[in-house]
Predict the structure.
Amino acid sequence: MKLMHGTLLLLLACAPPLAGQTAPPAELAAARKAIEAGNVAYKAAFLASDAEALARVYDAGGARLNEGGKVIRGRQAIARDVARFLAEVGAVRVGIETAEVWLVDDVAYETGAWSYAFHPKGKAEQRIGGRYVTLWKRQADGGWRIWADMGVPGT
């Protein structure tokens, strides 16, 4: 409940800048296309059990909020954390359904629904999912990487 409450507070804090957002349609479309490609790479990395590939989807200073509310920051730390998860559960089929994308300056705010399906050794297939907020940061080369990834399990 604390995790969900914190995420809701973050969304409320972002609401004023997002409400005034007036990104040109072409710029927003380009950001959405880059985010879609990033999500494809994210899903492929989990399916291949490739924690290093997954970490490359993140900004060098990017952060990932774990299920227990722990923030993992930086590509190397993200790769180590995801590698531990993958060692326990094996390949993960990821679903990402983007609901909205807002663009404010060099940050894109993506919301939607996520799901993971995996089959740990000796156990039945497990499915988890919820809602998410992901902040994508425009890179110096014009590309987009995840700056902050916040999933809310069970929502």
